[in-house]
Amino acid sequence: MIKDIVVHLSAGTDRDPACRYALSMAEAFNAHVTGVAFAYDPPWPPALLEGAIIDIYTTVKDDAQKKAKAAIAQFESAAKQSQLTYQALLQETSLLGATDAFAALARTADLTVVKQPSDNDGSNEFDMVETALFASGRPVLIVPYIQTAAFSLGTVLCCWDGSRTSARAIADSLPLLKKAKRVEVLTVITGKFDDNDVTGADLATHLARHSINTELVRIPASDIDVANAILSHAADTNADLIVMGGFGHSRLRQFVLGGATRGMLESMTVPTLMSH
Hints:
Elements: E1 4-8, H1 17-29, E2 32-40, H2 52-80, E3 86-93, H3 95-106, E4 111-115, H4 123-135, E5 140-143, E6 155-159, H5 164-172, H6 174-177, E7 182-189, H7 201-208, E8 214-220, H8 226-237, E9 241-245, E10 248-251, E11 254-257, H9 259-267, E12 272-275
Parallel strand pairs: 1-2, 1-4, 2-3, 4-5, 6-7, 6-9, 7-8, 9-12
Antiparallel strand pairs: 5-12, 10-11
């Protein structure tokens, strides 16, 4: 079961879809939820600054603290309206320190919830998502920045290509799949479409042993990329959640995303659980 959720709170905004989604999800599972906001230190060593530059440093630091405190207040206000147990954390640190701290928090939770980065967000939002996915060792649920609906599990799409990361994601999503009304095992065919292909049948059998009934679905992606094929099918089926493996690797603290993973992060319209 999911009993411990960590959510990254977006500072500097009046609307935080990840916060709202995480709280509604925690209510569905009667889970504890921890909201964490970071106040980032300016990227200039204060010891090397003087005069008017010190004033700018102080202004930037104070503004970051103010925005983080506002995010915490928003989270606490929403959490108090539920019967949940919750904890709010505000940490003042550098961007690099924040990603390390967030990964450490995620490692002792069942699930991490983050907002999909948008073009208006700074690099820190992208760093948080990538660090949670590749450095926490735990599943990450990414909420689209356009999300308005609360947590729901009408239809869930399990993206399956037989890979390690796909297997990990589906295993991590079992508590969610057991609550879903409808589950599809979705395979995207990028090569020649074979009507006799039974990809996903073994996974369907495995899920049936967990009392999860599934439908096997295969869709072609000859003229569009994999991410767009998945999102198009999600729209056609009015899916509430997508489950998929998160492909990529880290190189000298920089994360290199796989094509389908990057495509989903850039274009997602449905909450997506990823594991690596």
